User: What shape does this take?
Amino acid sequence: MEIKSGDELAFRRVYQEVFPTLMRVAYHVTYNKDVAEDICQDAFIRFYDKDMVFPTMEDAKFWLIRVTKNLAINHVKRKMRETASLEKVMKNPQINPFKDGQTEFILQESSAAVRKAVGDLPEIYRTVIVLREYAGLNYGEIAKVLKISESNVKVRMHRARKELGAMLDREEVNVP
Amino acid sequence: MCLDDQILNTYLDGELAEPWKSQVEEHLSYCPSCRARYQKLVQLRDAVRDAALTDEEIAPRQERVLSMIEKNHLSKKSSQSFWRRHFRVSAPQVIGVAAAFVVVFIGSWAVFGGNKDNTIPLPELNTTIDLKNITPVRSTDNASTSKSLESYSLDEILKNLDARGYDVDIRLKSIQPLALDRLDSEVKDVARIPEEGITISSDGMARDDSGAIVATGVSLDASNQVVASDGTVLFSAEQVSLIE
Ligand SMILES: [Zn+2]
Assistant: This one.
């Protein structure tokens, strides 16, 4: 069914259905819940204000995922630049985003390690993992969102898991 | 020959086509070393999925963002935008509310161009307007002004111009019903401005994705910029994608 993004009822339906996915995409790229929340808000406001027409709910969802992914990546890049210049001046150790005082939910040790490992992946690998595992997209859909070929998705997915596996293996050794 | 990791990953994601899929399954059924590597990939995949942000972590934020959008956006947006309100009314409706239907001339976005013969004349305003006191208003800014213009209501635009001391030329214009230009079979879409969701057709109409006309008399110039009838550049070539 056609979706008009500026129509309030349609907007509410899309919001209900897509928000959790967007929040996961934004979070697993930035690994900061407050930042992820702001990004989702930004994405949905753009969606509503732009008054677009999508042939299906899926198309609306892909648009939102693409925008959210871009906003999240931009945030990470900006953050990295800031941290880099800050470190130069202050010789600050890298801030660990997983110990940011968010104690509302007790996370399993293993999940914390995985989140850290995904967060340490280079951007091109992180995005395919996030879109596959946290947005539930298939290769064709990931290719569409990232505007790369499916065979490229295949290669990146393989390398992403290889790096992740190596990082988590190291992690296990280090944990007493 | 044993299976490489990329094949195993593709298989794991359910993206391997036949006949390779059956071949992989067959190989896994008798090769313990590949099976062990595959199991490890499954474990890794599951561990990554288990680390997903939980519904409990999401729910309060989902509510908070929605109530912010409800407060600041859903209620504020008038049911239809400035342009939409003007172009979507059908001719009989327009005649009924003729006195309320006005066009403000602001630079290149002045609208309702086109063939006079096809237009429907409307009754005049009841209000007496002394033409000597009226000066047309032109937008002094560049084309980007038109972007923000759309988000204002006519009332707001009039109030704003009034507050700035402009005399505003308000007048009734003839209406060309949308249905008429649709009948012109030679009209086809020539370009799109993806960022704005606007399509330009060969009859000089610019429409948004809902089909509402946002401007008339626009065209593509030699360097693929979208220009208004007076030559003002509305969209640069980088913003424009051509439709073959
Ligand atoms: Zn084997």
Remarks:
- DSSP finds seven helices and two strands in chain A.
- The CA atoms of residues 12 and 124 of chain A lie 32 Å apart.
- The radius of gyration of chain A is 18 Å.
